[in-house]
Specification:
Layout lengths: L1 E5 L5 E5 L2 E6 L2 E9 L6 H12 L3 E8 L2 E9 H13 L8 E6 L10 E4 L1
Parallel strand pairs: 5-8
Antiparallel strand pairs: 1-2, 2-3, 4-6, 4-7, 5-6
């Protein structure tokens, strides 16, 4: 069984078949601004679902009628896959613009991805 172990200092280590890999799991945090014409329920049905499926943590918030702000943290591979999903969009919503910048994690999201309404 695979997974991650969170150490007392907040760092993470990979765990595969019950054995902890002492090499640190690389974490990545990003702030993403997504511009699009969002359908009703898009935050929960698309963004939160994919973030949870990829075991990411962070928040998503509506900033205006066509802009949402996402803060996402997790393994580099999962964050990169999430970005690919956002760039592709869904059949009901294609992004007009995706703005990405590094984000220094200032608080603990406790392993959860939340929709802030």
């Amino acid at each position: 069984m695979s997974g991650e172990v969170v150490n007392e200092d907040g760092s993470r280590e990979a765990k595969v078949d019950g054995v902890i890999n002492r090499r640190k799991v690389m974490n990545k945090c990003l702030k993403i601004v997504l511009i699009a014409d969002f359908p009703q329920g898009f935050l929960r049905a698309f963004i939160q679902k994919h973030a949870r499926d990829l075991n990411l943590e962070g928040t998503v918030r509506i900033e205006s009628a066509n802009e949402i702000r996402i803060v996402v943290c997790g393994s580099k591979d999962s964050v990169d896959e999430f970005l690919d999903i956002l760039h592709t969009g869904s059949p009901k919503c294609r992004p007009e613009d995706v703005q990405i910048e590094p984000f220094l994690k200032g608080k603990d999201y406790r392993g959860v991805f939340r929709v802030i309404e």
